[in-house]
Amino acid sequence: MQRRAKKRYGQHFLEPAWADRLVGAIAPTIRDRFVEIGPGRGVLTRRLAPRVAHLTAVEIDPDMVAALSQDLPGNVNIVHGDFLDFDLGSVAGAGPFRVAGNLPYNAASHIVLKLLAARRLGSPLTDATLMIQREVADRIAAHPGTRDYGTLSIFVQFRATVTRLLALPPGAFRPAPKVHSAVIGLRFHDPVVHTRDEATLEALVRSIFTQRRKTLSNALARFAEAHGTTAREAIARASLDGTRRPETLQLTELARLADVFPSQS
Q1: Which of these, 99, 100, 49, 96, lies nearest to 71 by C-alpha position?
Q2: pTM, two decimal places
Q3: Where are the domains of the chain?
Q4: Do the domains at 7-188 and 198-258 have one common CATH topology?
């Protein structure tokens, strides 16, 4: 019996033809180890499993877990639970691994941040191919000076190269969502710019982007005062223009500004 989607889990199941295209975008090899986020009915799981060495599929819906457990090959391990609570260290011990998944729209940003945090702590996670709401993809891939550029863009691009792989209409899913979707690829790497303390950089970005359309002088004032200086002095030490807006700053400029302040680690 085919299980129906449950609204509380944000389930929208990918149609088989689009699953084939997604596998093509992922480009798995028989040496790869994967973690799949939210396998649902298993349309992607069943296509990945014969092509990879091992697959751990994390599913929150107990009915889906029970259904999937009946007919998957031996190289697939089904884990019942919320991916946000899943310990990626449990798969990291066996070496490098990849991630793929059709993410629930209401948790996509949190899942991406979890992957970044794992990488920051030394996880051998190499890349992630993620199906997400198009607007979230726009934010992740945004460039400085654009409307969508913000904290998510900065945090992701600090540790990953972002590639847009597919655009999906609502009809690619059952039931069809009310939004368009996109598939992005994240290839993780060491930070693209040097900063003395990542915690300070993250706190700075979160602070100034709450006032992203103000001048940098105004947006930075509260953060600077909390760290024993003034926005004017900090901006001068970072050799920046205080009349610019936070949303125009490049990663290198944000890192330079963060290094003006004491470490928070």
Answers
A1: 49
A2: 0.91
A3: 7-188, 198-258
A4: no
d(CA 20, CA 72): 18
User: Which of 193, 194, 221, 196 shows the shortest CA–CA distance to 207?
Assistant: 221
Residues 6+ apart with CB under 8 A from 2: 41
Token representation of residue 110: 């949190």
Task: Give domain 198-258's CATH number out of 3.40.50.2300, 2.60.40.10, 1.10.760.10, 1.10.8.100.
Answer: 1.10.8.100
Give the integer Cα–Cα distance in Å for 38 and 61. 9
pLDDT of residue 5: 46
CA-nearest of 168, 166, 163, 187 to 179 is: 168
- Report whether 179 contacts 105 (CB < 8 A): yes
Q: How confident is the model at residue 196 (pLDDT cuts 50, 70, 90)?
A: very high
- pLDDT for residue 129: 98
Q: What is the pLDDT of residues 126-179, one digit of tens each?
A: 999 999 999 999 999 999 999 999 999 999 999 999 999 999 988 888 777 778
Contact 41, 53 (CB under 8 A): no
Please compute, for residue 93, the number of CA atoms within 13 A of its CA located in the half-sphere on the CB side.
Answer: 3
pLDDT band of 9, cuts 50, 70, 90: very low
Span 7-188 CATH architecture: 3-Layer(aba) Sandwich (3.40)
